[in-house]
Amino acid sequence: MRITILAIGSRGDVQPYIALGLGLQAAGHQVQLASYARFAEFVRSYGIEFAAVGANPQGYIQALSKNVDYWRIFGDNLEQLLEDCWNCCQGTEAIIYSQVALPGYHIAEKLNLPCFAAFTNPLTRTRAFPHPLYTSSVNFGGTYNWLTYVVHEQLRWQSVRQKINRWRQDLGLSPVPFAGLYSRVQQQQIPILHCFSPTVIPKPKDWSDWAYVTGYWFLEHLPKWEPPADLVDFIDSGMPPIYIGFGSMSERNPETVINLVLDSLVQTKQRGILFSNWGGLQNVDLPDNVFLMTSSVPHDWLFPLCRAVVHHGGAGTTAAALRAGIPSIVLPFGVDQPFWGQRVADLGAGTLPIRQQELTQDKLIAAIQDVIDNKIMIDRARALSDRIRAEDGVKRAVEIIQSYLHA
Length: 407
What we know:
The chain has helices at 11-26, 40-44, 58-65, 70-88, 104-111, 142-170, 182-188, 229-236, 254-267, 299-302, 315-324, 337-347, 361-373, 375-389, 393-405, and strands spanning 2-6, 30-35, 49-52, 94-97, 115-119, 192-194, 211-213, 242-245, 272-275, 290-293, 308-311, 328-330. By secondary structure, it is α/β, with parallel strands linked by helices. The protein has two domains: 2-216 and 392-405, Glycogen Phosphorylase B (Rossmann fold); 229-389, Rossmann fold.
């Protein structure tokens, strides 16, 4: 069966869907993954067919890092995204759409195809915890938690409702009600695959039978890939380093945060690996105990060689650190990152998250000392790793998808 995966977002957002695509291909399906053009080489390197959709994601990524309503960013080029997604789904027999891939559900409705929602975050309404974008250290109770999902869904839907309904009219579909899709999706029992570990977030009791927690969809590095020789030499030359990286996020004054991190490494006498994809690091003076990594290196290879990870709290980086069995220090910018940072801390596998605007030298030094000296945290991170590695999220997701396709 030909299956199209619509995966919109940053590289970290797209990566799990490549892993899912490989699992579906291994099960005998023909898979096409549609995303931003900049990821074409990345996707094709794994032998998956690629289709380009939408405009350049830079505005989307910048909006995320500044906690802006990024649905307005989509509003500016939504017509192109809708048209591209529609075109790439012609001839497909099933659609899987990510949490940001707005058109997937509507295209499946028009073409009368089976479809699956596939989320890297817990976006299904629950009373167990608030929406990941509304994380709080205070427990306001089940009603508040439920309402955070309703509020977010409405903010997202109302920002694109008119354009989506005009497009649906062009397709010969009836308009979506003012309140959005929730009731319709629940009535139709659209399967929802959540690609995180039940060890990290157990399935809430109030989720429906068609909402699944499959386990992570980890993408292994290609067998032909070889690590840079100078990076290997640095790792081998001393104690395991601490990795510092902030994914695709951007910041107005990145040098300030990076210099603070580097100074903290010096004061705690720790070695570090700094991934420079954050940008704007021209004025950073690297100490001798820090290696500057200028190109992406697979986390599944690198993290097990490190002592700890300092990162932004993106879902993918968080998952990789948990799988590697090393503690995290999460410095979230916003969006879902405080949620994952708090979850890591609650699991005992990292320090309490320190929001960027609250970051100080003393707080970071204390956090670094904690991940180095806290034996309970170190042991907990290793124990979680053992449980996560025993799961096979891709296999479980493929089994679920095939159970619906063959029903």
